[in-house]
Design brief:
Radius of gyration: 28 Å
Strand content: 35-45%
Order of helices and strands: EHEEEEEEEEEEEEEE
Shape: elongated
Number of strands: 15
């Protein structure tokens, strides 16, 4: 009968038989080495980065390695989410294995704060920010509510669920030929001028605007209130 592979450790070499007196390499020591290696590779642990190393199969009997363990990650492999670390002993009784681990990165994520139907143009009241595991779901999270305000919800999302680029669509906030307010910060003071949008644009997009006083064309970013913020 074929013996199943241990769930948390994949042994990559045939291990020599060990005598009862042969010192063993403790699994917890290996896990500690893997944790330290990942902390050096992906960054030290913090509230925003957590490293989890799987338990090793307690049936493993690995000879105590007299040389420092050699640890590695697959070339070009991920540095977050599920990770497999290669561990090798190159001493007199060599062995090697793969140790599964997980690197979890946390950060701010915009979620829906209250029920909203598809077609809703989202406002600040519809949104809140929560700390979430960024490796646990699809990419495309929004970290800043300002980048979501003014977008249209295109399909149903339950309150508390993250909003991603796949569930919202940009809504046109200014239209070509429309009069808009240009806002420039000069010396800590907001200077406002009238302009004409040269194309349709959504909140957060960069749009070209003709300054109606100087006839100069400038570029600025569309704010949620429909003004266009420019840098001087």
């Amino acid at each position: 009968m074929k013996r199943p592979t241990p769930p948390a450790t994949i042994v990559m070499a045939l291990l020599p038989a060990l005598s009862a007196a042969q010192p063993l390499h403790a699994p917890d020591d290996i896990r500690s080495e893997v944790r330290g290696f990942l902390a050096r590779e992906v960054g030290p642990e913090s509230p925003q980065l957590r490293i989890e190393v799987n338990e090793l199969d307690p049936r493993l009997r690995l000879a105590r390695c007299e040389e420092p363990l050699s640890l590695s990650l697959p070339p070009g492999g991920p540095r977050s989410g599920s990770i497999t670390v290669g561990v090798r002993c190159t001493g007199e009784r060599p062995w090697s294995l793969f140790v599964p681990a997980r690197v979890r990165r946390f950060g701010p994520v915009v979620v829906l704060a209250r029920p909203a139907t598809p077609g809703t143009v989202l406002t600040a009241a519809d949104l809140r920010v929560e700390e979430r595991d960024l490796t646990a779901g699809p990419a495309g999270y929004f970290p800043d509510p300002a980048t979501v305000i003014g977008r249209t919800l295109k399909r149903a999302v339950a309150p508390g669920q993250p909003l991603t680029a796949s569930v919202v669509v940009s809504s046109v906030r200014v239209r070509r030929g429309e009069r808009v307010t240009l806002v420039a910060r000069v010396g800590g003071v907001d200077v406002r001028m009238q302009g004409e949008a040269l194309r349709d644009a959504a909140v957060g997009e960069v749009v070209s605007v003709r300054n109606l006083s100087s006839q100069r064309v400038v570029e600025g970013r569309v704010a949620p209130d429909g003004s266009v913020e420019v840098r001087m």
